[in-house]
Amino acid sequence: MRRLAALLLLLWAAPAAAQDPRLIADVSQSRVDIEYSFAGAELLIFGAIQYPGGREPETAPDIVVIVRGPPQPITIRRKEKVLGIWMNVDAVRFETAPGFYAVATSAPSTRLTDERTASIYELGLDHLQLSPASGNPPAEIREFEEGLLDLRRRGGLYKEVAGGVDIVEKVLYRARVALPSDVPVGKYTAEIYLVRDGEVQARAAREIEIGKSGFERAVFVAAQDHELSYGLFAVALALISGWAASALVRRS
């Protein structure tokens, strides 16, 4: 309630001379901690629309909310049966695939903008710029892109929800985005776009940090900062565990 009151105060106090609408945005959590019992989380993205001169339009504009995770390179491989054995026969590497991507819209994305505008702002899964690094033919690259999107959709890391943004009295908006339990750590952005007559008229963004905490963070930091020592320790621990299990079996 305090955040909502602050947003309304900003809306009232803002100068009326602006010619374009303005988005005021906030998120329910600017940091999400992942612990051993982490089973996922839900982000609330909310805010208000400030209209020029305080005059509301006859019809409410549309809102697109995108929560985007850290970009990461990924190689997608295709397997085929060769002489009765499943083998990797083709591969495409993408340099900037987001680790998480969720988009919620107040209306179906096909009704919001044209293809060019949607591609510029990456409004929707079909308009993600994945930066393929391989020299494969365009048709083959598109086939691998669809495979990547399908894999991450099924894993809950990519999602698109038409009607996932509620607009109240043409001024207030809100959207809920679910984070799965295996969401990657890193810096995220919540991007909010105001769309009217096929054009993006305003935008806002907020940063979100998703990181490990407690014992998980200690292990994660050790693996990142001391790779050799961590690897040797992991091998030694596996050998000791195997020897201990074998000894217990022999005694029983």
How do the strands and helices of this protein lay out in sequence?
Elements: H1 2-13, E1 22-27, E2 31-34, E3 41-50, E4 62-68, E5 71-82, E6 85-98, E7 101-105, H2 115-121, H3 138-154, E8 158-162, E9 165-168, E10 172-179, E11 186-196, E12 199-212, H4 214-225, H5 227-251
Parallel strand pairs: 2-12, 7-8
Antiparallel strand pairs: 1-3, 3-10, 4-7, 4-11, 5-6, 9-10, 11-12
How would you sum up this structure, described in words?
The protein is an alpha+beta fold. The protein folds into two domains: 2-211, Macroglobulin (MG2) domain (Immunoglobulin-like, Sandwich); 213-252. It is built from five helices and twelve strands. The strands form three sheets. Strands 2-12-11-4-7-8 form a six-stranded mixed β-sheet. Strands 1-3-10-9 form a four-stranded antiparallel β-sheet, with helices on one face. The protein has a two-stranded antiparallel sheet with strand order 5-6. A hairpin with a 2-residue loop joins strand 11 and strand 12 (199-212). Helix 4 packs across helix 5. The N and C termini lie far apart (62 Å).
